[in-house]
Design goal:
Helix content: 40-55%
Structural class: alpha/beta
Radius of gyration: 24 Å
Distance between the termini: 90 Å
Oligomer: single chain
Order of helices and strands: HEEEHEHEHEHHHHEHEHHH
Strand content: 15-25%
Largest sheet: 8 strands, mixed
Number of helices: 12
Shape: globular
CATH topology of the largest domain: Rossmann fold
Number of strands: 8
CATH superfamily of the largest domain: Alpha/Beta hydrolase fold, catalytic domain
CATH class of the largest domain: Alpha Beta
Number of domains: 3
């Protein structure tokens, strides 16, 4: 064989083996992703009729062989959220399933092809929607109607007690809920300015802009009036969003929380929350609910507002990689176990509703 051909063939063999190794590693990584994103529960798409239209939902049930399960009904926070929250709810649903509970969630109106527009909803509209979902669940033979509770995050803090005032619930898990819309907005503004290292002049200008917005809301100004008041710069505000804020800016959960007296409530608060004043939230929940002894407050020092680890949430790359290869690790330490434990304790009667 010519000595000039051997190195060429050797190079081809090396290239071939390199390609094989790349394919093996890629297949291995794909396998890890599939394994890590497989959850110990069954999921099915469901349809719930409400107000002349359909809620497109997902029902996740435990694989424990039981014919009936308790249920956790999910109330979303702000934004265009689909039933699974882009699969972000699934680790939570799995924790519920381990405790013997099913989970129910649905696309917000206008999201993922669902009819309607969530920006046209008031907090009362959202509560009515959840009440319809609870009624639908109570009619199912595989759901224990005496063990249906609510899970809600952030903006859902204004919805959860409204639901409880309209239909009996067995428990509530409130994650980073706010109390007063306007106070929450001001807290968030100042916290973000501090995080950005804003100058005193910028802070003063942003507060003045916020005060102008409040005055416009108080006199029921139109979106066009808002844009003119902002000097023609809507800064991301849309007509639909302005309408949504106008419907809901007076929201305050303080009085509504009385509907949760005697109901076991798990209040989960983040240590790095720049969206919600957790001290105000805890103080109000304790003032209204502590007397009945059914309130449990858990703080997660390593968590951001979403109850994801702050160290992960601060980086889009870390969030993406963790979601792919270890989605349960996205959440603050003890959060998933704490939710599971709360539900298991309900089953043992340690926090049973009277």
């Amino acid at each position: 064989m010519s000595p000039k051909i051997r190195p060429r063939r050797r190079g081809l063999r090396i290239a071939a083996w390199s390609l094989v190794m790349v394919l093996v590693v890629a297949a291995g990584l794909a396998g890890v992703v599939l394994w890590q994103n497989s959850y110990a529960m069954d999921e099915q798409r469901v349809s719930i009729r409400h107000g002349g239209h359909t809620l497109n939902g997902v029902l996740a049930t435990p694989k424990d062989g039981r014919k009936r399960h308790g249920l956790v009904v999910y109330i979303h926070g702000d934004g265009p959220v689909d039933a699974t929250h882009d699969d972000g709810y699934k680790p939570l649903w799995e924790a519920n399933a381990k405790a013997g509970y099913a989970s129910l969630s649905w696309d917000k109106p206008g999201v993922a092809g669902a009819p309607g527009n969530w920006l046209e909803q008031s907090m009362d509209d959202r509560a009515d929607e959840a009440v319809a979902a609870v009624a639908w669940a109570r009619a199912r033979p595989d759901i224990d109607g005496h063990r249906i509770g609510l899970w809600g995050a952030s903006q859902a803090g204004w919805v959860l007690p409204k639901v409880a005032a309209k239909t009996p619930v067995s428990f509530v898990i409130a994650v980073s809920p706010a109390i007063n819309w306007l106070r929450q907005g001001r807290y968030n503004l100042l916290a973000e300015l501090r995080a950005d290292g804003a100058s005193a002049s910028r802070t003063k200008a942003e507060i003045a802009k916020s005060d102008t917005t409040r005055r416009l809301l108080a006199r029921h100004a139109t979106f066009e009036e808002y844009v003119r008041a902002m000097g023609g710069d809507a800064d991301g505000m849309t007509a639909d969003r302005w309408g949504f804020i106008s419907k809901n800016y007076t929201a305050d959960a303080t009085q509504d929380l009385r509907a949760l007296r005697g109901v076991p409530v798990l209040l989960a608060l983040a240590g790095h929350d720049i969206n919600v004043d957790t001290a105000d939230t805890e103080r109000t929940y304790r003032k209204v609910l502590d007397a009945g002894g059914a309130l449990t407050v858990e703080r997660y020092p390593d968590a951001a507002h979403s109850l994801l680890k702050q160290s992960i949430e601060q980086s889009d790359l870390k969030t993406t990689l963790t979601a792919l290869f270890s989605p349960r690790s996205l959440f603050a330490d003890r959060f998933l176990d704490g939710q599971r434990q709360f539900l298991e304790d309900l089953g043992r009667g340690s926090n049973a509703s009277p």
